[in-house]
Amino acid sequence: MTNLINKFLLGILIVLTTVLIVNADEKRELFKKDIKNKKSEFKNKDNFKKRFDNMSSERKDFILDEFDSDGDGNINEEEREELKKRMEEYRKNN
What we know:
The longest helix has 53 residues. The mean pLDDT is 83. With 94 residues, the chain is mainly alpha-helical. The relative contact order is 0.05. It contains three helices and no strands. It is 86% helix and 0% strand. The chain folds into two domains: 42 residues; 40 residues, no CATH class.
């Protein structure tokens, strides 16, 4: 009887361990994806700033006139999203 109980408890322990390992693997994969997305987000922001700095003054002036709603001379995240939407619409139509 004691042997049967020990086998039963060992089986439960094995199942529980397996479930925890699978769950940990899933969490690890989600964490890796999150880190990758954050890296690409920062990279995209840096790329936009570099591209914006290298633009001609006429193009910069146009973008700032059209999209710099707070008038600070910089394109913040909300303004950048609006610019991105407009560019996507332009590409679809042309």
